[in-house]
């Protein structure tokens, strides 16, 4: 993959959009397209025909499917060749996650196995542990699970009470405790377990074999959705874990848990794409069959609006996902070129893009929830029937806002990461903020947009950045030490940043497509950008006003309000017509092919 001059984590907030380049899905290599086809073919042949059997948790079926996935090489994409995997790029592993993401419960099992289950060992494990287990993980001979959550320790994961005590002979840790909500727990052969050694305040991480005496498993949870995904409690009662099975150093477990969650969050941003496209296909196919008032419901503007919004959110999400994934690959290559070991380079890259990972998790899960909800709505009463496939789409979507860190926690991550960048007094953000505030009286009235189509869009996006920088600065200055406990303000700021990043990613993709697509094809992407930017501006304005009304009063409030009006302006255009054209293309094709 060609080097694209990636930005540092969070740098999009100050970097000029015109000087930014982003990798887009239209640049996938032949090999990457082939992997996408293999994944799609697997879903069509093995997963979609068996969805009811999977959801009924038919004995052995999920394990069988994962083993078959292993035979195709799809479980070893991220595992280096020296450990029996394929050593593919981060982007390629996201392509598999994206396509297989349409596979409902199977996708959850695949994602947990290849992501949070296996990666702590890959990135932090000793050479001996990696040699012993990774080749079998790459083929699917051993399946994995990630055991962090406990009954009393969910979002506050480091508060877990599972303990590991060194045995008298120093050869084992004796593990006692309980984990809950463990995906793949019903069958995983290897458990990555987080526990505190003795009276440590910070978690450590251990690799535990399923058949270790003292490990027992609870019954399958009855869940609202992803019913085919195995989710159980796991109990550890005086389990002897060899000391060499510690992953990373003592006390490093919490850092491992968080770093691995960064990957999980990006991966979730990929998984949702497959689910989005599947729900859109159900939506348009129904809308093209169902007649009311003597015409197909796909002819109604209200339905076209929903179909178009489904497509817009999907393309926007995809743009942000592949932009970020390529940044991760480029950062890894940069670190390796500096002499870092591959594993260290990965960790460096994942820490770097913590903010972007959280953005993808929140935007992707909420966009999918919107899409499946409108899919049900398009089906009317039939959407409420458990006989229709949208029933499964709707139920399976909801978990995405909860696991891999709830969306509240991820919004806090976005706001916290921003604060870290902004607090540095020599940071560009700090200087821009001070300058904006000093000149705040200038930011009112109407903007005259100049230049060509993309120049004008760039102006809008640059102004979004100014809006965020200004509001965050004033919030922080006004609230002082209280800032971090004013979560409502932090949520609003996070929402603004999320909209900005996705809007900018979409802009960069559409700009690139000008040279790649025919003018007819390209025009529909401009429609997508027009509609998304307008919506993002309105959302940024709303969030900004919510924030300032929480901390500003009197003259300050009015000045900030006017500045928000100024910085969230967009060119007036008929986005109803843009949405109609997007919907029309979907309706004519009768399936998603953007
Ligand atoms: C189907 C399923 C599969 C899962 N798979 C796994 C797995 O494989 N491995 C694993 O370790 N875990 C897994 N989990 C656990 C999951 O990660 C947790 O449920 C999640 O992190 C939330 O923790 P909790 O359920 O304890 O909610 P809580 O932490 O109790 O949160 C309850 C509410 O309070 C909010 N909240 C909590 N803290 C704060 C705060 N500081 N500020 C603002 N709001 C806050 C939350 O956002 C949420 O809205 C799974 C869960 C489910 C349901």
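Q: What amino acid sequence fits the structure above?
A:
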């Amino acid at each position: 993959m060609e080097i694209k001059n990636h930005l540092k984590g969070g740098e999009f907030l100050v970097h000029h959009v015109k000087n930014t380049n982003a990798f887009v899905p239209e640049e996938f290599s032949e090999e990457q397209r082939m992997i996408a086809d293999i994944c799609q073919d697997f879903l069509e042949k093995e997963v979609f025909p068996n969805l009811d059997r999977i959801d009924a948790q038919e004995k052995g079926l999920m394990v069988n499917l994962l083993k078959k996935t292993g035979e195709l090489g799809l479980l070893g994409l991220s595992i280096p060749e020296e450990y029996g995997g394929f050593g593919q790029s981060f982007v390629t592993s996201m392509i598999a996650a994206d396509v297989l993401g349409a596979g409902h419960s199977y996708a959850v099992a695949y994602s947990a196995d290849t992501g949070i289950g296996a990666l702590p060992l890959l990135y932090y494990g000793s050479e001996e542990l990696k040699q012993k287990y990774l080749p079998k993980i790459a083929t699917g001979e051993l399946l994995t699970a990630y055991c962090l959550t406990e009954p009393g320790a969910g979002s506050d994961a480091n508060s877990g009470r599972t303990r590991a005590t060194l045995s008298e002979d120093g050869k084992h840790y004796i593990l006692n405790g309980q984990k809950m909500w463990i995906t793949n727990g019903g069958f995983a052969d290897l458990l990555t377990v987080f526990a505190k050694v003795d009276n440590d305040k910070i978690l450590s991480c251990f690799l535990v074999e399923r058949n270790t005496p003292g490990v027992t498993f609870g019954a399958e949870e009855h869940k609202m959705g992803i019913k085919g995904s195995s989710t159980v409690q796991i109990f550890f009662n005086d389990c002897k874990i060899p000391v060499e099975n510690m992953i990373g150093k003592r006390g490093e477990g919490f850092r491992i848990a968080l770093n691995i969650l960064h990957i999980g969050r990006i991966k979730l941003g990929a998984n949702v794409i497959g689910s989005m496209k599947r729900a859109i296909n159900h939506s348009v196919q129904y809308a093209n069959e169902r007649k009311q008032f003597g015409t197909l419901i796909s002819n109604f503007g209200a339905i076209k609006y929903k179909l178009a919004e489904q497509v817009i959110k999907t393309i926007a999400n995809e743009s942000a996902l592949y932009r970020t994934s390529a940044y991760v690959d480029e950062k890894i290559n940069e670190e390796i070129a500096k002499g870092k070991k591959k594993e260290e380079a990965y960790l460096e890259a994942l820490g770097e893009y913590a903010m972007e990972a959280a953005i993808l998790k929140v935007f992707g899960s909420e966009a999918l929830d919107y899409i499946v909800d409108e899919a049900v709505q398009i089906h009317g009463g039939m959407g409420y029937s458990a006989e229709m496939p949208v029933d499964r789409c709707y139920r399976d979507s909801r978990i995405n806002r909860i696991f891999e860190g709830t969306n509240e926690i991820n919004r806090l991550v976005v706001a916290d990461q921003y604060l870290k960048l902004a607090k540095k007094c020599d940071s560009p953000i700090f200087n821009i903020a001070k300058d904006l505030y000093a000149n705040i009286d200038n930011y009112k009235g109407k903007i005259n947009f100049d230049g060509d189509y993309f120049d004008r869009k760039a102006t809008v996006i640059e102004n979004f950045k100014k809006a965020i920088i200004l509001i965050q600065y004033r919030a922080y200055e006004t609230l002082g030490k209280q800032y971090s406990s004013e979560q409502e303000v932090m949520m609003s700021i996070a929402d603004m940043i999320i909209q900005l990043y996705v809007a900018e990613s979409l802009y960069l993709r559409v700009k690139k497509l000008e040279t790649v697509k025919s003018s007819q094809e390209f025009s529909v992407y401009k429609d997508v950008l027009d509609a998304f930017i307008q919506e993002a501006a309105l959302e940024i304005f709303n969030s900004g006003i919510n924030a300032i009304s929480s901390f500003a009063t009197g003259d300050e409030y009015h000045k900030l309000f006017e500045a928000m009006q100024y910085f969230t302006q967009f060119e007036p255009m008929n986005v109803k017509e843009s949405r109609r054209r997007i919907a029309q293309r979907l309706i004519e094709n009768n399936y998603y092919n953007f």
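Q: And what stands out in the fold?
A: The chain has two domains: 1-405, 414-589.
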